[in-house]
């Protein structure tokens, strides 16, 4: 299984009054991790959008295990959990410097035509990208 890693330095603006990273910022980190995974594989969201397609989130689930605070550095680990005809699920771990898990997450995405938002298979619009996901996904659905 291919796992991408992206280091994140926690900024003060990402924390709440308790000095803990505000929960919604984890979703931003997931996007950063997902973008890094795609880049590591040699593709880009920008390229997909240039071709007239988008990949919206249809579901996101974050499980918080331990808090992250200002000044810490975390690693976002991202992989393709499952890939099917229309839906891709990414898996994530956000990990403290000492290796303990701060959170786990998944996000589900579809590819849609930018003009009408109708779902389209990644295989149809980018066969090589689809083949790479088929190769590295934990589960093919």
Automatic annotation (TrEMBL):
NCBIfam families: YbgC/FadM family acyl-CoA thioesterase. Belongs to the 4-hydroxybenzoyl-CoA thioesterase family. GO terms for molecular function: fatty acyl-CoA hydrolase activity. CDD domains: 4HBT. InterPro entries: 4-hydroxybenzoyl-CoA_TE, HotDog_dom_sf, YbgC/YbaW. This is Acyl-CoA thioesterase. The lineage of its organism: Bacteria, Bacillati, Bacillota, Bacilli, Bacillales. Keywords: Hydrolase.
């Amino acid at each position: 299984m291919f796992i991408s890693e992206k280091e994140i330095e926690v900024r003060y603006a990402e924390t709440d009054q308790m000095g803990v990273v505000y929960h919604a910022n984890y979703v931003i980190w997931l996007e950063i991790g997902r973008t890094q995974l795609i880049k590591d594989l040699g593709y880009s969201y920008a390229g997909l959008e240039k071709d007239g397609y988008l990949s919206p989130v249809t579901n996101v689930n974050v499980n918080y295990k331990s808090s992250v605070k200002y000044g810490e550095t975390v690693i976002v680990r991202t992989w393709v959990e499952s890939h099917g005809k229309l839906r891709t699920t990414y898996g994530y771990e956000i990990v403290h410097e000492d290796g303990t898990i701060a959170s786990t997450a998944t996000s589900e995405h579809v590819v849609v035509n930018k003009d009408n938002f109708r779902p389209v298979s990644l295989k149809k619009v980018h066969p090589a990208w689809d083949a790479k996901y088929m190769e590295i996904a934990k589960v093919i659905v």
